[in-house]
Amino acid sequence: MLRALVVDDEKLVRKGFISIIDWASLGIVIVGEAGDGAAALEWMKSSEIDLLFTDITMPRMDGFELIRQVRQQFPQVQSVVLTCHHEFDYVQEAMRLGAIDYIVKTLLEVDSSDTVIRRIVERCHWERGKITSSAETASRQASPSAGQAIVFVPRERGEDSGELFRLPLAKGSRLIRLASTGIWLTQPTTSNTAAEIDRELGDRLLAIWRPIMVTGLEGAGSVEEIGRLVEGSTLLNCLFYAPEQTGTLTFAVSELKQRSRLDHGGIVPEHWYTLRWALHTDEWKTMLAEAERLTVEPEAWHAFTGRLGMDWSGLLFATAESHRLLEERERCRTWRDWRDWLGRAASLIRSRMDELAMSREVMGCLIGAVIYMRQHAGDKINQSDVASHVSMSRSYFSQCFAKLAGASFGDTLRTMRIDLAKRLLRETDAPVYEIAERAGFEDDKYFSRVFREYAGLLPSEYRAANR
Fold first, then answer.
1. Where are the 4-aspartylphosphate modifications (predicted)?
2. CB-side exposure of 104: number of CA atoms within 13 Å?
3. How far is Cα 431 from Cα 410, in angstroms, rounded to an integer?
4. pTM: predicted TM-score of the whole model, two decimal places
5. Is residue 346 helix, strand or coil?
6. CA 185 – CA 180 distance, rounded (Å)
7. CATH code of the domain occupying 2-139
8. Do domains 2-139 and 144-262 have the same CATH topology?
């Protein structure tokens, strides 16, 4: 007998559905009922079922999410959708998530119910037979799949995972989402080759997902334990720098562990912030080679490029260019994507240099001056100090700096000090007079007046508004 659970938020509809059918004669026993998806999952944690009948539109957790969760947590359970005549668009989505059939509640009658349920029972037995056969085959082959996992990495952010649940290789095995956003993992019940995985996904899904087969996982334990092992490895870093290809990549977990021991932490070297790579061809080539050698992590690239886009808006990039660069970061998924992004940023910086009619050497000095000013905005520095730091005469530095910044040195330094004061007001509880001193202002009354001119609020008002 198949054990079944019925889920519908309308109690009368739920009871009516259960009472209209002679379940026992069709090989089914209704063992429970629930009013929404969340309650159904709680019920399933303590009671075993084979078949789930679920409505789509429900409070707390709808039918779509319930089917998705059941595929992850209880892969042997088959799902059937209970729908109304006007919900056929929903049915397609549910089937894509892994439902095996659907029942139109408004059309279900005593005379026709046996045929509908018998069809579902046959499909359920067929699915269970496939899973059993796969498990027996794997057992006869000394369980080769125990040492293999398949990871699906989206090529774009926000990819829909629904179609992964319908893949034959995921049948009878759990498909879980890793903590890394949008990444899914399954441990198939049978072994697969890269070519077999490619054929199963087809060109369309291969264009959406990057499948990675991880081998050498014998004795790794449950799919959750494998997921933690994969997350703790450098798989994503290896994939990040791997040559772009549409087919399945293969990594041995021992190889990933070895790379993990050699990994330097994936941080961005500080000297890259000087932007010499954007001005000089040889420095550009050196940075690319260094990036691949250090295997800088994707998150570090995201932070590094975000800082560049914001720090140099209005100086090296026009405001619109900066916004566009920051938006383009969200579409970067591989090292090649980031390399192209850096190339576009470098091109914009060189265009700015040409626009100002400056040499690479002078542009590099001005970039160094701005970096130095930001680092020492709270110190007692003046234009002579900064010009000396970048080895330029004071008068020539003043002229070139004004061209780059579109404002005098004094106005620019004052703006940097106000920005520093804003950050200190947001992040610390230091009194205003101390904030003024730490931001490079000798007089707190003068500081308050200047702050109000720039921010439109007194320091105390700004702090209150940003807490």
1. 55
2. 8
3. 25
4. 0.62
5. helix
6. 11
7. 3.40.50.2300
8. no
